[in-house]
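Supplementary notes for students who missed Thursday's class. We covered one full example, reproduced here. Read the sequence, then the structure, then the short commentary at the end.
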Amino acid sequence: MKQTIVILAALLLSTTSYAQFQVSASGGYAIGSAGMKLGETQTSGGIENSYGSYGEGLNTQLRGTYFFNDSFGLDLSLGYLHGSDQTVSKVSLTGFDVDAIARARAFGAAASVVYKFNTNVYARLGALVKLGGKTEAVVYQKATFSQAEADAIGVPLGSYSETNYVEDYHGQFPLGFVAALGYEYPINTNFSVFAEAEYYGISLKRKDSEITEFNTNVVLPDGTVAVEGLYTLNNLPNGTNKTTTYVDELPSDNTDTSKELAVKVPYSSFGINFGVIYKFKKAPATTAR
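Structure (token representation):
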């Protein structure tokens, strides 16, 4: 027992004598990996699937890393993803057009183990979680009225409705993983610059969504707005729900249109980051007496 305590004390002393803390800031761009179907493009000639990942886009990170010795350390990072637009629905048919995109606006965190192969090359491997944010869908729809619809509203044939709305999707608490391989170049004792390739493996299961903006105008054939705000957020069209809840199971006789089956959406990505590191002074070596 006494021998074990001595060994543990020696290990603690050796790590404490080296202990170094550093902080870093970086920015980069990621492309989707393992892209899944996100939507469709439809024309009079047919329908085509569109694939991607909401993890694609610009990202920034702040990290703190504590090294116990020359090789091993623990890393905690906070990041923000400003996702690129992904096609959800693109329809171009006679009298009917839709342009719907979705994009991620997400905050995340990761805890990783860091291993230095040498002074310059290192690797990270750890767990990744999403702390907050949303997947934002932005939709434009144009629908030409039939003769009966035009007569009912009191506008000439060739008039159309023009709808714009925004719907925010929120997900359940996810858990993924992160892996990175980087190269660090020291500038002086305290500062270094680095570049790294980073992989995120994570998917989000939808929890709920909410329409946050909605407006429908009636437009004449010459482009003049005849009726502004025919439908708004406070006066949604019949069959349109302001909020939707996503569940794993629905009864066969379900009539509640505000509930839908849950789906998983991909956030996985592969990116390149560039940044700067600031190293605090190492703990002074302790002399045994």
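Commentary. The mean pLDDT is 89. The chain has two helices and 17 strands. If anything here is unclear, bring it to office hours.
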